[in-house]
Amino acid sequence: MANNEKEILLKVRGAKTYFAIKKGLMKRTVGYVKAVDDISLDVYRGETLGLVGESGCGKTTLGKSILQLVPVTEGSMEYKFEDGFKDLRKLPRKELDNARQKIQIVFQDPYSSLNPAFTIFGSLEDPLIKFGMKDKQERIKKIGDLLESVNLPRDYMTRYPNEFSGGQRQRIGIARALSVGPELIICDEAVSALDVSIQAQVLRLLNQLKEEYKLTYIFITHDLSVVEYLADRIAVMYLGRIVELTTSEELFANTLHPYTKALLSAIPVADVAQKKHRIPLQGDVPSPANPPSGCTFHPRCPECQERCKNERPVLEEYVIDGVSHFVSCHKVKEMMEAKGAVKKESVSE
């Protein structure tokens, strides 16, 4: 995924995160849940990369794998530090703790991500202490500044989480992520638990903070309307794999993968007079413990061909009107080759 104009901040190559299925008295491993199954992508400094897909497709697991919050089975996740790229999987514990100063996360549920026994000051001061801010007055000033940066009064630091609404708690969660000066923030369904009006406020805040603090986001969501507003590029996931990846504008203007087409067709339209062709998907998402052969989407795909049932497609890059567009689909590959679209190397290479 070379791009000479942009600086790569994070390189993920061949990432797999499998969870063992154990049964019996001896707890023998009888199989694996393939939550993340061979993903490769680049994250560029200063961008917002949207990660979308149905529930259970592996979006959150990929985010936690990048942070090394869940053990990664295979592959590499190289982050660019001051002295070059280092694989987060291979860092000693102390170095990994320091690396997490560069990579932070905003969790999905604002009600469970804050300890109800601590004041807001207590929740936000721990990371400051961990990364060297020993003076309490300095911490008080820093936390007050953080609260003001997310549009909350400084004196809120003396209150407890139960005194705040969901939107306010999520702002506090964002302030906590900002507290150690990160470069990359993973937003895991950061607005899905909020009312629509509050969602809009938090999204505007995230955009504002991105410019102010020169941040990079990986924004995980199932809501394509949200990701269209926020993301520079969008990666569509299905059953642990990326099936389409391109810029936000290109994805909505020139959708190629059948799964992405179905997702976009399900977006509600405010204008009742505007007719929209809905593409229904048959059945449920298959189990990641027993994925289908060939293309994992083929049992539900309205454009399925015989080869899709047996041959697994590769995520390949095509250049369409100068825009990079990655797709993993046999039919799209045939169509692109017929059109003479320039194809670049596979992302996994």
Brief synopsis:
This protein is α/β, with parallel strands linked by helices and 349 residues long. The protein has a single domain (8-102, 182-343), classed as Rossmann fold.
Topology summary:
Layout: E1 8-23, E2 28-44, E3 48-52, H1 59-66, E4 74-81, E5 84-87, H2 93-99, E6 103-106, H3 120-130, H4 136-149, H5 166-178, E7 184-188, H6 196-213, E8 216-221, H7 224-230, E9 233-238, E10 241-247, H8 248-253, H9 258-265, E11 316-320, E12 323-327, H10 330-339, E13 342-343
Parallel strand pairs: 3-8, 3-9, 6-7, 7-8
Antiparallel strand pairs: 1-2, 1-4, 4-5, 9-10, 10-12, 11-12, 11-13
Describe the fold and architecture:
The protein is of the alpha/beta class. It has a single domain, classed as Rossmann fold, CATH 3.40.50.300. Helix content is 29%, strand content 26%. The protein has 10 helices and 13 strands. The protein has helices at residues 59-66, 93-99, 120-130, 136-149, 166-178, 196-213, 224-230, 248-253, 258-265, 330-339, and strands at residues 8-23, 28-44, 48-52, 74-81, 84-87, 103-106, 184-188, 216-221, 233-238, 241-247, 316-320, 323-327, 342-343. A 9-stranded mixed sheet has the order 6-7-8-3-9-10-12-11-13, sandwiched between helices. A 4-stranded antiparallel sheet has the order 2-1-4-5. Helix 4 (136-149) packs across helix 5 (166-178) and helix 5 packs parallel to helix 6. The longest helix has 18 residues, at 196-213. The mean pLDDT is 90.
